[in-house]
Every structure is written in structure tokens, then in C-alpha cells.
Design a protein that fits this description.
511 residues, alpha/beta, 5-stranded mixed beta sheet, 14 helices, 26% strand
């Protein structure tokens, strides 16, 4: 597609500079009683960027292991402004999960919450990370430059072809892969989304409740600055706080995963909340139940727009358009300048007809450069100018896309990608486990949950509770199996491999 886009900034740093020039006194961000105007935000980003440059960060990577805060939001922009590559990481990760990421990313600096210091410190020593900045209560605060007239965005600014982000996504081998995204890919995707889902310049208040280490939340951090609106950041999802904030702050836009919308509508305050300022909700990361979509619209008189994307695609590929008829179950049409095709699973070359299901392949200016340190997996994902997504979908006659299944072994738990292979490997490392298999099964609230099945070594007295405690020590909370079943044997295929398809079917039948 060649449809023109709204203004495309060279980088998100240029975008912030423009917002600070056009609306210096406008409110840019709010978080737990602290707030910044655009002038102050640019000063804080510039002050931290200069500090990072003095540490040698330009051209290197800086990891941000932080929860939602002004520090995380400022830090993401500052790393870009310093000419470095931002590596956002979940602060709930265990030391085991962090080890591979830090080793692979090789950051020159880590910015992390004070609360995870004990987990991060040994890794800083093990991998010789040159610099470490602890933030939050008891650590650094990044709004100290707000009144400093001498602080400003550093020159020269990054170029469109510089690397902007290294976003880690789960790997089918059990090890996450780092997605290399350039400033051009990041910036053009913002304008592609604006073309499909236009905001009102200088007149938006966006609520950020999704975690800012997640690519979906970062998308709306950028959207708020693009439209020169206000981003209201909450530290975590609490339904009563979210509903109170929607009313008190006159929120106009809310991005969230399906579990959040389900939780909000189940709360006793939902029907009493004033949604009069509200315009649009956005859903991504997992399929949205049609019932949820319909009930939300009925109660709030506003739509939930579903979209589709992944870290490898900048991240957004398609979205519903609120100016068109809502199609429940669809993730909309491809964004401008984005091509999406459905091809046969076997060869990936035969383009299928309307209504036929196959693998989704995509191309567009927002698609990644590749995976860091993974030439073979990059070559497998990027073939002939196309990104092969591993997702199964189909088009209807109007060009609307539907996601039907996944070619790759992956579950989506509360909006987070979970690769059962990683859980298998953690279980196999347990001294009492002889065989193990984890599978994703449908769940009305979380979308999917993980169920694990284990065969114990002969003579072991380990039980499910002990194995779950072991998982809690080695896996982020959303990856921990909902159940562990100790069984005498696992089903096998004719060639002796564990038959996960049968396990999954049995788990669904038992639910």
C-alpha cells in the first residue's frame, strides 16, 4: 500500500522536541502526585541523556529494568536521545530469566528499580556491566532537571537508521530473542497507527496501566507525545484505581489487554463510573472475547478497537478503525503501507484465497532489522522481503483480518507471550523430574493458562506443591503453571516424542 501517512518524525526524540516547542507548558505526564510539562520533560530527558553519553552509552545498549514510573518513561526517551539502544526488561524476572538477557544484550548500563537491586547486583558483577543506576524510593529520581534551563535535548539527535530498541520476545528454543528496531521503523509505525486511529492534537489524556517494559504500553507512551497529550501513569493495575482515574482525570484513551477490560466490567464501581470524557479503548496482546467488546460499548458508549502486531513489526500491523463498522472477532485491516498475505503453511509461498486459513506473512517499513546475535533465526523469520509471523489467520471479503491459531508453540497468558518450551526446560532442571511438558489451555479470564505435566524419577517423593514453589523461584509470575499434574507417563507420538497436542486436548476436555 502507498497511502500517505501523517507527519513522520525522524525519531521519537525529534517528536518530543517538537511537542516541547509547540506546547511547552502543557501537561505531559503524571504519576503518583508528580507531574511534568513538555518543557520539563524535555529537560529531564536531555539531562539524563547527557549523563548517559558521558558514561559512554552512545552506540551501546542501556537496559531498563523498571516498573511503571516517571523514571521509566523519562529513561526510555533519554536512552534514545543519548544515541543508545533501549532494552526494556520486566522487573519481575528472576535471576535465571535475567541472565540470558543481560548476557545477550551486553548493556553498558542498567537502570533499575531499587526494589530489584538484590537480583540485579550479581548480574552486574558477573557480566561486567560498567554502570548501574538504581531509581525510585531510596534511589535516583529523574525529574531533578525539570527546573534546569541549561538542560536540553543533546545534539546531534539520533538518525532514522540508528538502532532504537532491543525488545526481547520469547523464543521457541526457550531463550528470548532480541528484536532490533531502528528509529525509522519506530517512528513510521507511530504515523501508520495515527493514520488508522487518529487522535485529537493537544486534546488527549491517555491512561497507562499496562507495564512500560512491554511493547504495547510503549506504543501508547509514544502516541501521547505524538498528539501532545497527557499520559497518566499508574504503577500497576488495580480495577478500583483505574475506574477512579478514568473519572477523575477525564481519560480519553485506554490501551489494555482483554483481562483488564474483563476485570473492570466485573468491578462493583464499573456501572457508577463517569465515562463521559472517554473516546476509545484499544485492545492488543491477546484475543478479545466478543461478549466483552459488546458489553463495553453498551456500558461506556465507546468502542474497544482490536489490533494485531508483534515486537518484530514495530509493533503494530493492523487495527480496527472506529470510523468504520465494528467487526467483532476481527483485528481490522492492514495499516497503511503494510502488506499482509495468507500463505500455505508448508512452503510459505502459495498465497491463499479469501476465507482460507494459513500462515500470516507481512511486509512494511515498520518490520524489524532482525534478531540480535541470531542470524539463523533472522533468516528463518525474514524471507524474500517478508516477515513470517508464525500465526495462522484468514481474510474476509472486505479485507478484515482474523487471527485463528498459532503455528508456533506459544500461549498468551494475560496478554504476555509464554513459550512452554522455556517452562519445560525449567522443569527438566529439577532433580526429581524425569519428564516434563507444559501446554497452554484456554481460560475465560486470562485468555490462556499454563498446565504442566511431570513424571518423577523413581523413588522421588516430590509433589505438585513443591514443584510449583520451584517454578516460583525460577519463572516470572505470569509464566508459572496454574497447575502441575504428577503423572505416571506422558503420551508419546509414534516416534517417541512427547505428544503435546494430545496433552492439550486432554487438558481442554478436563476443564
Amino acid at each position: 500500500m502507498t497511502q500517505d501517512l501523517p507527519h513522520v518524525y525522524p525519531t521519537v526524540v525529534h517528536m518530543l522536541a517538537d511537542a516541547a516547542w509547540r506546547r511547552p507548558e502543557a501537561l505531559a505526564m503524571k504519576f503518583e502526585g508528580r507531574s511534568l510539562s513538555y518543557r520539563e520533560l524535555a529537560r529531564c530527558v536531555g539531562g539524563l541523556a547527557a549523563e548517559l553519553q558521558a558514561l559512554g552509552a552512545s552506540g551501546e545498549r542501556v537496559a531498563l529494568i523498571c516498573g511503571n514510573s516517571l523514571e521509566m518513561a523519562i529513561g526510555l526517551f533519554a536512552v534514545h536521545a543519548a544515541g543508545a539502544q533501549a532494552v526494556p526488561i520486566n522487573p519481575l524476572y528472576t535471576a535465571r530469566e535475567l541472565t540470558h538477557l543481560i548476557e545477550d544484550a551486553a548493556p553498558i548500563a542498567i537502570i533499575h528499580d531499587v526494589g530489584v537491586s538484590a537480583t540485579v547486583a550479581p548480574l552486574v558483577a558477573d557480566f561486567n556491566v560498567a554502570h548501574c543506576i538504581a531509581v525510585g524510593d531510596g534511589g535516583r529520581l529523574f525529574d531533578t532537571w525539570r527546573g534546569d534551563d541549561s538542560a536540553g535535548l543533546p545534539e546531534p539527535m539520533p538518525t532514522p537508521d540508528d538502532l532504537a530498541s532491543l525488545q526481547y520476545t520469547g523464543g521457541t528454543t526457550g531463550l528470548p530473542k532480541g528484536v532490533e528496531i531502528s528509529h525509522r521503523q519506530l517512528a513510521v509505525n507511530i504515523s501508520q497507527r495515527e493514520a488508522r486511529m487518529p487522535t485529537r492534537p493537544d486534546d488527549e489524556i491517555v491512561l497507562c496501566v499496562m507495564p512500560l517494559f512491554h511493547v504495547f504500553a510503549i506504543t501508547f507512551l509514544h502516541l501521547a507525545v505524538y498528539c501532545r497529550g497527557t499520559l497518566v501513569i499508574l504503577p500497576r493495575y488495580q480495577p478500583d484505581v483505574v475506574l477512579a482515574t478514568i473519572e477523575a482525570e477525564h481519560i480519553t484513551r485506554l490501551p489494555a489487554g482483554p483481562t483488564i477490560y474483563i476485570g473492570l466490567m466485573a468491578h462493583e464501581n464499573f456501572d457508577r463510573t463517569d465515562f463521559s470524557a472517554f473516546r476509545t479503548a484499544y485492545s492488543g496482546s491477546a484475543p478479545l472475547p466478543v461478549e466483552t467488546l459488546m458489553r463495553w460499548r453498551e456500558k461506556t458508549d465507546s468502542p474497544i478497537l482490536e489490533g494485531y502486531g508483534m515486537s518484530e513489526s514495530g509493533p503494530v500491523l493492523s487495527f480496527m478503525d472506529e470510523r468504520e463498522e465494528m467487526i467483532p472477532g476481527s483485528v481490522g485491516k492492514p495499516l497503511p503501507q503494510t502488506d499482509i498475505e495468507i500463505v500455505d503453511v508448508e512452503s510459505g509461498e502459495k498465497v491463499l484465497a479469501v476465507g482460507e486459513r494459513g500462515e500470516i506473512r507481512v511486509r512494511g517499513p515498520q518490520v524489524m532489522n532482525g534478531y540480535r546475535n541470531r542470524p539463523e533465526e533472522t533468516a528463518e523469520a525474514l524471507r524474500g522481503g517478508w516477515l513470517y509471523t508464525g500465526d495462522i489467520g484468514e481474510f474476509d471479503r472486505s479485507g478484515n483480518l482474523y487471527i485463528r491459531d498459532r503455528k508456533k508453540d506459544m500461549a498468551i497468558v494475560s496478554g504476555y507471550n509464554v513459550y512452554p518450551r522455556e517452562i519445560d526446560e525449567v522443569l527438566y532442571a529439577h532433580a526429581d523430574i524425569q519428564e516434563a511438558a507444559a501446554v497452554g489451555v484456554p481460560d475465560d479470564y486470562r485468555g490462556e493458562i499454563i498446565r504442566a505435566y511431570v513424571v518423577l524419577v523413581p523413588g522421588s517423593s516430590a509433589d505438585a506443591d513443591a514443584i510449583l514453589a520451584y517454578c516460583r523461584d525460577n519463572l516470572a509470575k505470569y509464566k508459572i503453571p496454574a497447575t502441575v499434574d504428577v503423572v505416571s507417563e506422558l503420551p508419546k507420538t509414534t516416534v517417541g516424542k512427547i505428544d503435546k497436542l494430545t496433552l492439550r486436548q486432554n487438558a481442554v476436555a478436563e476443564a
